[in-house]
Amino acid sequence: MALVFLKLGTFAFGGPAAHIAMTEAEFVRQRQWITEADFLDRLAAATLIPGPSSTEVAIFIERSKGGWAGLLVAGCCFIIPAAVMVAMITAAYVRFGSLPQVAGVLYTIKPAVIAIILQTL
Asked: Which DSSP string corresponds to 39-100?
């Protein structure tokens, strides 16, 4: 299950709605690890508490399958890839952002970088 959460954490772009859709597709339709009703119950519970619902749903699913250890592993596998990507983009921007050779490239990707950073925060 850790690999599945790592995959979702690494490739699930598009914000919470995309995360929730990919989580549902992965756990309900493809792997059939939980039922649609269980997924919707977890989604409903996650929307009632503050925080990112997509992350809460993913961690809640693993908590029910793998206990507290599963919750920690799933949380790390789901959250760390995005945090690492944002840190790498930020470091590249800080390091190379003021070079004239890179200015044109950065000018075109600045809106995407800012959106990713804001979404992650």
From this structure: HHHHHHHHHHSSS-HHHHHHHHHHHHHHHHHHHHHHHHHHHHHHHHHHHHHHHHHHHHTT-H
Token pair for 19: 């995360």
Scanning the structure block, which residue is given the tokens 């756990």?
A: 27
| pTM reported for the whole predicted model | 0.68
d(CA 68, CA 104): 47
Residue 22: what pLDDT? 86
Q: Is 15 helix (H, G, I), strand (E, B) or coil?
A: helix
Tell me, what's the pLDDT at 120? 57
Please state the separation of Cα 75 from the chain's center in Å: 10
Torsion angles phi and psi, residue 111, rounded to 5: -60, -40
What own/partner pairs with CB < 8 Å and gap ≥ 24 does 32-40 have? 33/61, 33/65, 34/61, 34/64, 34/65, 38/64
**pLDDT score recorded for residue 39:** 93
**DSSP conformation class of 12:** -
pLDDT digits (tens, 9 = 90+) for 28-43: 999 898 899 999 998 9
